């Protein structure tokens, strides 16, 4: 808390304040704009650390709550209602952590329209943080929809060749999902006379009859965002066409909004429907894991490969979520963070290669380690983290999820975990093949011989991520401790319904 | 007629007299000093607006219950008068550079506004018909104001023929209602319906005929065919005025008559309203997809928006949500009006002589080249799509809330899915403006910029405090004499 204003408010307000300051910096002062945006996002990260310092570990309830009435319509009030608990805390931190890194990565990659880029980036950050902090359903929807606007610009203006197609597809897919969620929100509000998350939780019985429909209305929006098979087709386009920083944020954070939505809304608000549909969701998740991995293996374009690997990795998150065990949920949240870190880093690496060679075809590389040893070494760590090598972060998340899925009473079948394990093996195959084709072997192309290795700024963008990769991999306990109480409570809540049903 | 009677219609009377004075002044004014007329018209509208707002909170009837005054009328009259002011701002430079500045323009605009206000306050079916003609005839002329351009003449003729056609429906409906109740005064009809002396069959037929007639005015499907051609052919400031004010007037009379006279017929009329609302949303949005001319695209968008408004009106017979329906419809009209006028201002800025500068391709590169105009158009498109942090989002939110509260989840689903379709064509304009290279030609004009920036600021800033606006519309209740 600073000046009597909660950290949560600062988290949303700081990027907006930066936005308004940047508005008045002339477009030709490119460096001033870059530094302004970076400084803003670093301050925001500072606010996130402030929030972390105040967070009571071990308390499963919502904390640091900010609650103000906003729009009063008859007897229904839309509130400006923010709060944080174990499910959202790490995601907020991840958002505030990745944004400055993404901005730093654009230093030389974005030369045209720096002002617009930074303005949209700060708007996006504010919107994403709002999504993770909002506890009023309408407020959540507003932030959720609002993130679309800066993102289509980031893809559509600063993206690759088919950027317009990708941007429009991204917008329409997401909007299609979210309008039905809006309908669900309106229905909930009119049935219970409240939009507040915890008040709805108390009144679950009121809308118990419509649970399956509500689950589907919310679930469609989240499943598109995650994305779950077969709703994933927007993702490869958006990822491939987006500029590097856009891909980092898209993979690192936007996809997590969908997974987080399941955790925050579907599980606790519609527990009967969750129990009923969990095997189906888990089955789709497993299909996504295997399908994403198989398609990733077939790619020639590194960025596409990473994009499809996201489909596979996010499948683990959904599987862990619908295993409905404490381990599964903890693993799911941790895997979200891990995926944000390792895939974010992979996209940064792809971006660094692309800036030097202006191609992403694996056949254009080979033997890069010899030319760029620093990039090679860092890439190896990131690749190993992404494929889940023990000792690095990816392993902890995936292992916890598989353990949770294996022990799950709801899924009640070892097949889910068994097949998903195949995904881990496939990930090793496609990621190592990619690494081999790009970095190992002889230098096959003359133009690759004189590529400059990473400069200080580039190392600075990767270093913090790699630090966390090791930290989570070697000593994950502090992170799990943050998640555990809230995950435990959520599972207890869903399980109590299961018991009542018997 | 007493003085208190006159007080009830003071804004109307003032507007009429002012229009006549302007006609006289025009006779003495040299041709090159027509600009003075525009300023005088603006002055007149501003005074009328002041008179209108001074009436807020008052209610009553006058001229033996021929007209009523209520907050509903005050709100809508203000909307028409402000629309008139904005249309003037759009036209100030436009009329000059398109060489169609003639003094009649201003008087006709005022006549039409007076007709709208009369239509909103009318409490007698004959007066409703009279006011409907009174607002329409000046508009027929205004639609053809770009004469001798063929498109404009075509627009005027089409508007006139279909307008006359729809008036016939209204008249027939009035005759049937009169036949059913032996009364043409709204108060009398309500009394007859309440006492059970009304002949239900004729009354229903009359209501349907009235619905058809008003359906033409608000451009609801399947009575929308005229709108794209008329919107395209008319001088753009007139088009903007029609899209906002005429539509609002059509909805005003629809609300007053159906809520007052036919709540009892809701069971038989609701399926018709349901069908028209669903069709309007679907057809309007689908046809907008195929447009390459910005004026036609906005015309179809205005049809689709009429569909959203009608969606909230479907449960009009349900007393529990009727009040909510009115306030959310008025809110939407205001949100839509601000957004649309802004968009039309941008269209005017890009329009060149001979109807050039009106294809979507002419907007390529607008965003980077003219940041202010680009951002305002972006805001209008987002607001029309219903993206949060714009008034359009709250407008849709309140309309859908009404539909869901009344139990029309099916209609709400149609509305929400069609708004995803609409996202495609609104987004296309954004994409063309920001993501395609081009050399747009823009007319720099202070009044246009004022309208575009003013409405854009309103659309964004008011969205932070939507509740104050909603309270305003919630107070705009209908008064029964």
UniProtKB/TrEMBL annotation, chain A:
Origin superkingdom: Bacteria
One Pfam family it belongs to: Proton_antipo_M
Single GO MF annotation: NADH dehydrogenase (ubiquinone) activity
Residue ranges of every copy of the NADH:quinone oxidoreductase/Mrp antiporter transmembrane domain listed in the record: 134-411
Gene Ontology biological process: ATP synthesis coupled electron transport; electron transport coupled proton transport
Gene Ontology CC terms: endomembrane system; membrane
Keyword terms: Membrane, Transmembrane, Transmembrane helix
Main location as per UniProt: membrane
UniProt entry tagged with the keyword Transmembrane: yes
Taxonomy of the source species: Bacteria, Bacillati, Chloroflexota, Anaerolineae, Anaerolineales
The protein's name in its UniProt record: NADH dehydrogenase
Disulfide bond keyword on record: no
Membrane topology designation: Multi-pass membrane protein
Positions in coiled-coil regions: none
Positions of transmembrane segments: 6-25, 37-58, 78-104, 116-135, 141-158, 170-190, 206-224, 245-265, 277-298, 305-326, 332-354, 374-395, 415-435, 456-475
Compartment(s) of residence: Endomembrane system; Membrane
Family per similarity comment: Belongs to the complex I subunit 4 family.
UniProtKB/TrEMBL annotation, chain B:
Origin superkingdom: Bacteria
Pfam families referenced in this protein's UniProt entry, alphabetically: Proton_antipo_M
Positions of transmembrane segments: 6-29, 36-54, 74-92, 104-120, 126-147, 159-180, 200-220, 241-259, 271-290, 297-317, 329-350, 370-394, 406-427, 447-470
Catalytic reactions of this protein: a quinone + NADH + 5 H(+)(in) = a quinol + NAD(+) + 4 H(+)(out)
Coiled-coil ranges per UniProt: none
A GO cellular-component term linked to this record: plasma membrane
Annotated keywords: Cell membrane, Membrane, NAD, Quinone, Translocase, Transmembrane, Transmembrane helix, Transport, Ubiquinone
EC class name: translocase
Localization annotation: Cell membrane; Endomembrane system; Membrane
Swiss-Prot/TrEMBL GO biological process terms: ATP synthesis coupled electron transport
GO MF terms, alphabetically ordered: NADH dehydrogenase (quinone) (non-electrogenic) activity; NADH dehydrogenase (ubiquinone) activity; quinone binding
EC number: 7.1.1.-
Ranges where the NADH:quinone oxidoreductase/Mrp antiporter transmembrane domain occurs: 122-422
Topology in the lipid bilayer: Multi-pass membrane protein
Subunit field text: NDH-1 is composed of 14 different subunits. Subunits NuoA, H, J, K, L, M, N constitute the membrane sector of the complex.
Function: NDH-1 shuttles electrons from NADH, via FMN and iron-sulfur (Fe-S) centers, to quinones in the respiratory chain. The immediate electron acceptor for the enzyme in this species is believed to be ubiquinone. Couples the redox reaction to proton translocation (for every two electrons transferred, four hydrogen ions are translocated across the cytoplasmic membrane), and thus conserves the redox energy in a proton gradient.
Family (UniProt): Belongs to the complex I subunit 2 family.
Protein's recorded name: NADH-quinone oxidoreductase subunit N
Gene name of the record: nuoN
